[in-house]
């Protein structure tokens, strides 16, 4: 079975940084593009960032552009998201998902359990 597990969330002060990880199993991780999505309390799911299968191309939502870096280590079956200069509006549950193929033009076909990020003083 395909499994995706995010970790690395927690309570962070405004202006701080964090690094989220997502470990995939049950599929050939390096063959698929991956995505980070978040959901703030009372709000809809929001796309955060995507990365192609080799990591050659990365894409960011305007809300995180310039503050976030998505990366992957295919040897470790792990996806990362580093976010700096955190704001209260970054608070939410961050989840990872996989695309059906190596490019971000594909649809998503598997989602992982998220990790809570709370930005507060």
DSSP helix count? 0
> What is the gyration radius calculated from CA atoms?
13 Å
The overall average pLDDT, rounded, is: 96
**Structural class by sheet pairing and helices:** mainly beta
Distance between the termini: 40 Å
Query: Helicity, in percent?
Result: under 10%
Order of helices and strands: EEEEEEEEEEE
Overall, the morphology is globular
Low-confidence stretches: none
Largest sheet: 7 strands, mixed
What amount of the residues lies in strands? Answer: over 45%
How many β strands by DSSP? 11
Question: Can you tell me about this structure?
Answer:
This protein is mainly β and 121 residues long. 0% of the residues lie in helices and 50% in strands. The protein is built from no helices and 11 strands. Strands 2, 4, 5, 6, 9, 10 and 11 form a 7-stranded mixed beta sheet that branches. A 4-stranded antiparallel beta sheet has the order 1-3-8-7, with no helix packed on it. Strand 4 and strand 5 form a beta hairpin. The model has no long low-confidence stretch (mean pLDDT 96).
